[in-house]
Amino acid sequence: MEKSIVSKILIVGCGLTGSVTANLIRHEASSNTEIWERGNNVGGRFYTYHSDTDPKFSVDFGAQYFTATLEFIRSQARPIFKLHRWQPLSFATTCSLFVNDGSSLRIYDELLDMDKLVPLGQKIENFRRLSEGKMNFVAPDGTDSLVKHFLDKADAKMCLDHEVTEINLKESEKVWEVKTSSGTVKEFDAVILTIPVPEVLKLKGNFHDLIQDDDTRIALEQVKYSSRFAVALLYKEPMKSIEELPWSMKYFPKDDTICFVSVDNRKRGRNSEIPSVLVHTAKKFFEDREWSEEEVKNHIVDYIKQILPELPEPTLTKCVKWPYSQVIDAYVDNPGCLVLNEYPCLICGGDSFTESNFNGCISSALRIVEELLKHVSIAISSKKAKHSEA
Ligand SMILES: Cc1cc2nc3c(=O)[nH]c(=O)nc-3n(C[C@H](O)[C@H](O)[C@H](O)COP(=O)(O)OP(=O)(O)OC[C@H]3O[C@@H](n4cnc5c(N)ncnc54)[C@H](O)[C@@H]3O)c2cc1C
Question: Which segment of the chain is annotated as a signal peptide (predicted)?
Fold first, then answer.
């Protein structure tokens, strides 16, 4: 069957999967791609809070660090993309996808060369032993800098405050009509959803009719996430007692209230900057009852006083709720993505189809674009075609 030609592509969600997908599409063709993000910032679960008053002051609220093998990343260099055949996810497979000699698809390499990712260089307290050769990395400019890096090269139109609520197939025109909570309605030739599966299932529209197959619906409904809060304790000036803590990240494996604490500036190797302490609550704490953000902040500040009495009183606290934090049960067999419809193309991806980490998102983005290109040819937008002719 001949491939359909698409010119207008919509990516829903601007986390790591969405930004890398946009970047990979740009790598293939200069298309008319838009990204619709419901929040007023990019990053998703790679969210970093940046202070309005002090550009140096920021805190990672979601993902904290990334695990990879430096030698492997650097040593693997082979052409991959268009002809790559998908294999089940493994760390080695994932890394081998990252490097494409002679072309611009060098995802890990590029981040390391540009110091967007640097080795952690510190021990994490109560951390499981890393298997041989693996290393932890951090993003010195904040985890959202990774998403911004991919976005900058994607050449896609970014639309913040665009919460998709409904997706309908217009069969006669072979397009998707997409609606947002603020009333925007627009048609696209292909739609890529990079939001957690439970959120896909909450969307309205006749696209649900495409999930007629009971096995697929059940498999989608079985995707499960953990939930947690992230609370940041913010300070106005350097604090000796924080500088003197013997760790920059610590897990609390037996605690029902919190599971992880990091001294964010130290984690990123920025010891001299104003400190901030980030706390992730335990799964049980979230599930215990309905909490308001104010209650969570007060409770966590009091609790931290008990278990880490050396920490000073914070000047300010901030709280983020992560109802879909990390995947507990991914989509069966971790396929990387799921094609809900071939023509017009509708694809779901993100960590629901892999695993909740950097590699999982990159693998999903690669799979999404691989599937997209199986079903469509991307038409170069007329504006961009003129531009490149000039
Ligand atoms: C507390 C926490 C700690 C973590 N720690 C680590 C770690 O240390 N290392 C690691 O590698 N990973 C970690 N992870 C996991 C990692 O953050 C995720 O796997 C990854 O960010 C998922 O990226 P994504 O792009 O697939 O999804 P997301 O980042 O969730 O992006 C989806 C985007 O879609 C938007 N969206 C949702 N619904 C709609 C809609 N209807 N319309 C428009 N936009 C919508 C969301 O606002 C979001 O921006 C952690 C996650 C959390 C929450």
Answer: none
Tokens 């599971």 correspond to what residue? 259
Q: Is 43 left (phi over 0), alpha (psi -120 to 50) or beta?
A: left
Any atom of ligand 1 within 6 Å of the Cβ of 46: yes
Q: Is 42 helix (H, G, I), strand (E, B) or coil?
A: coil
| β-sheet bridge partners, residue 9 | 33, 190
Q: Which of 382, 254, 229 is nearest to 318 (CA)?
A: 229
Residue-wise burial string across 256-286, b where 16 or more C-beta atoms lie within 10 A, e elsewhere:
ebbbbbbbbbbbbeeeebbbbbbbbbbbebb
Please report which helix (H) or strand (E) contains residue 5, including its range.
strand 4-6
Q: How many helices (H) and strands (E) does the chain have?
A: 13, 24
How far is the C-alpha of 364 from the C-alpha of 197, rounded, in Å?
13
CA distance linking residue 13 with residue 158, whole number of Å: 10
Bridge partners, 175 (sequence order): 170
Token couple for 350 = 């993100």
Q: With a cut of 50, which residues of the chain have pLDDT below it?
A: 75-105, 385-390
Q: How far apart are alpha carbons 302 and 127 in whole angstroms? A: 25
Helix (H, G, I), strand (E, B) or coil at 281: strand
Task: Give the distance, in angstroms, between the CA of residue 15 and the centroid of all CA atoms in the same chain.
Answer: 4
Single-letter amino acid, residue 250: K
Residue nearest to ligand 1 atom 36, measured at CA: 13
- Ligand 1 close to Cβ of residue 148 (< 6 A): no
Distance 375 CA to ligand 1 centre (A): 27
Name the residue at shortest CA distance from atom 13 of ligand 1: 63
Q: Quick one: pLDDT at residue 78?
A: 37
- Cα-only R_g, the chain: 21
- Judge contact between 178 and 191, C-beta under 8 A: yes
Q: How far apart are CA 157 and CA 151, in angstroms?
A: 10
